[in-house]
Automatic annotation (TrEMBL):
Signal peptide: none annotated. One of its GO terms (cellular component) is extracellular region. This is Neutral metalloproteinase. It holds the Pfam family Peptidase_M4. It comes from Streptomyces nodosus. Keywords: Hydrolase, Metal-binding, Metalloprotease, Protease, Secreted, Zinc. Residues 74-181 form the Peptidase M4 domain. Residues 65-98 are annotated as: Disordered.
Length: 355
């Protein structure tokens, strides 16, 4: 594990606070009340995470190192906040009647498989960490999160958000926060926090593409497609291809993500805009992946993975720090070929310097 200067795991949610803020002010209590309760819950959990200084999953039973097999357990929280809840499916158990349980189990498996097959990483920590998830968390809870130890999924309010186990990239996104926690442990504020969010979007998208057998050209590059309820004017939570285009809805507002540094948002909210400015490195990755073509988890994903796990990425890294490391990683692995050229051009296109 990379030395992280004592910074503990953070409470990372898939739905940004600015989206829930907007919903919480809606005149319809069916939309406003779940959003307000979700915001209050998430604020409390973030405060609790800040008090944690030990990285890892306390009390987790380690798998035998190098087994290369997942150890999944899915729990039913029963619409309460007590975690993990009642065990409903263990590794190797047959699917049951609960679609949320089955989707969570499959999503944990898809994430494990991508990291193992593409990068030789045995689970989230690289050492066979068991993967735990709880579904049906709280009442009409409008989010999913990684809490430093496990995955947690709400059922959504049914009006704006559907069940958070539906998009496999949401599962991959949240579990990748765990990978970041065990490697670079990027500080969850400002540009390093936006990089933390972007890396989760990158690998969440790659997990979906891998599971569906899609090339970079086939992929929709959306995060959370299928999560928004019918009638909501939106495609998902974020678009890596066109940041700022994921939704434009009376209840949700308009997607505020910029795709270049010209639109960089300076704010004290959302930990310095971590869910907003992540659009910039997201688009850079999309540009690299589509320039190289083929399976995005191979060359483009490998470069990003090398930087995340290489030990040189500072926890307080800026976009420029990360960009320079991706150029160096592309050169180290592929020499001065089309991979390095694609990386240089992508960062130039979004306005992030590499020299």
């Amino acid at each position: 594990m990379t030395d992280t200067g004592g910074q503990g795991p953070v409470h990372c949610t898939i739905v940004p606070p600015h989206v829930l803020d907007r919903l919480a002010q809606h005149g319809d209590s069916a939309l406003a009340d779940p959003a307000r309760r979700t915001l209050e819950h998430d604020a409390l959990q973030r405060t609790r995470r800040r008090l944690t200084t030990v990285i890892g999953a306390p009390g987790a039973v380690a798998a035998e190192a190098g087994t290369g097999r997942p150890r999944r357990t899915v729990y039913d929280a029963g619409h309460r906040q007590n975690l993990p809840g009642s065990k409903v499916r263990g590794e190797g158990d047959d699917p049951g009647q609960d679609a949320s349980v089955n989707r969570a189990y499959a999503g944990l498996g898809a994430t494990f498989e991508l990291y193992l097959t593409a990068y030789g990483r045995d689970s989230i920590d690289g050492e066979g960490l068991p993967l735990d998830a709880s579904v049906h968390y709280d009442d009409h809870y409008d989010n999913a999160f990684w809490n430093g130890e496990q995955m947690v999924f709400g059922d959504g309010d049914g009006e704006i958000f559907l069940d958070f186990t539906i998009p496999v990239d949401v599962i991959g996104h949240e579990l990748t926060h765990g990978v970041t926690q065990y490697t670079a442990n990027l500080a969850y504020f400002g540009q390093s926090g936006a990089l933390n969010e972007s890396i989760s979007d990158v690998f969440g998208s790659l997990i979906k593409q891998y599971a569906l057998g899609q090339t970079a050209g086939d992929a929709d590059w959306l995060i959370g497609s299928g999560l928004l309820a019918p009638g909501v004017n939106g495609k998902g939570l974020r678009s890596m291809k066109e940041p700022g285009s994921a939704y434009d809805d009376p209840a949700l507002g308009k997607d505020p993500q910029p795709g270049t540094m010209d639109g960089y948002v300076r704010t004290g909210r959302d930990n310095g805009g971590v869910h907003i400015n992540s659009g910039i490195p997201n688009r850079a990755f999309y540009l690299v992946a589509t320039a190289l073509g083929g399976s995005a988890w191979e060359r483009a994903g490998q470069i990003w993975y090398d930087v995340l796990t290489g030990g040189e990425l500072r926890s307080e890294a800026s976009f420029a720090d990360f960009a320079k490391l991706t150029v160096a990683a592309a050169r180290a692995r592929y020499r001065q070929g089309e991979e390095q050229e694609a990386v240089l051009k992508a960062w130039e296109a979004v306005g992030v310097p590499t020299a």
